[in-house]
Amino acid sequence: MTFQLSEPILVVGLGGVGIKLATKAKELLKSDCLLISNDQKDLDFDCKSIKISTKSVLNPSVQLIRGSAYADSENIKEEISKYSTVIILANLAGRAGTALAPVVSNLCKESNKNVLSFAIMPFKFEKDRIFQSGISLKRLREYSGCTIVLDNDALLDSNPDLSSIACHNISNDAILNVIGSLATTSIPEDTNILSTGKNVQNVEDSLKDSLRMLYEDAPPSSVKRSILYILGGDNVPVGVLNSVSNIAGVFNQENTSVSQSIGSGQKSKVIMLSSVQGETHFDKYDPLGIIPQEKTLDWEQPECSINCEFELYQLE
Fold first, then answer.
1. pLDDT at 144 exceeding the cut of 60
2. 217: Cβ–Cβ under 8 A, 6 or more apart, which residues?
3. What span, in angstroms and rounded, lies between the C-alpha atoms of 134 and 168?
4. Could you tell me how far CA 65 lies from the centroid of its own chain?
5. Distance of CA 149 to CAs 71, 82, 97, 115, 174, Å?
């Protein structure tokens, strides 16, 4: 099954990075845009926006931002009610994206919207963010018809010489390239891993970078379909394009299909979108994730808190 993209489309940016991507994505799709954050500085764009108020708390936790977002759920529902498809862009390495992704995706599901979500995962040295990102991704996948995950840590592992800023730039470019192709490319439902690498002269080397990044997150046997976005492919010899697209044998050739989308570009580069089934690297972010779902009890809503502002007087 492939994800059905239907108009009208709303692009929703959550938190700082998600908002920056959303403002660019709306231009690619010629769609409307909604920005949601607890930080007013993130909302300084010419788009509809919802400010999540944490009142007097200047450095709110993920749980407090999430709890405060539920107070604005009716406003969010009203904005998404006018659209058929909602595309969510969230950086799960940031507090706002991690807090808001489960809330907004759940509201979209309750409103019977087609939900396509993009999630950016943290570096492994960001140890304080890994657990919360895993919890948020689990909910996001549950509430979305299709989820595309880009793992910054896997990109850094396959390219250890890159700075964190360079990694973010490569990640953002890869996401925007996929969004720009949504009108012409069918994307499988469920979970997809987005992998890429730095700009190189050789397309085959770029493909190897993408494969290394993919293997950090999922085993080859779990890949059911892969789409190769070959940038600058119009200047690449046909023989090379043929060899690059013939990578089904790297996975499970009998069960894996590979298609390609060739685009223009100043430099040659491969971006790979792989549909996976089964366990991924992100399932280990939550230590309790190894327990089968049918044997666990969980809240319908993810963990959140509210600022009650109780005045508790000391009793002598």
1. yes
2. 149, 151, 154, 193, 195, 280, 281, 282
3. 19
4. 19
5. 28, 27, 14, 14, 11
Residue 151 token pair: 């793992």
Angle at CA of residue 104, ends 87 and 28, nearest 5°: 20
Residue 212 tokens, joined: 């290394």
- Separation between Cα atoms, residue 177 and residue 269, nearest integer Å: 11
The CA-atom distances, in angstroms, between 57 and each of 41, 52, 60, 114, 201 are 16, 12, 6, 34, 50
How far apart CA 257 and CA 255 sit, in angstroms, is 7
Distance CA(90)–CA(242), nearest Å, equals: 35
9-194+282-291: which CATH topology?
Rossmann fold (3.40.50)
Q: Hunting for tokens 């990578």 — which residue is that? A: 247
Average pLDDT, the chain: 84
Ramachandran class of 161: left when φ > 0, alpha when ψ lies in -120 to 50, beta otherwise: alpha
**Structural contact between residues 256 and 226, judged by C-beta atoms closer than 8 angstroms:** yes
Mean pLDDT, residues 60-85 taken together: 93
241 close to 230: Cβ distance less than 8 angstroms: yes
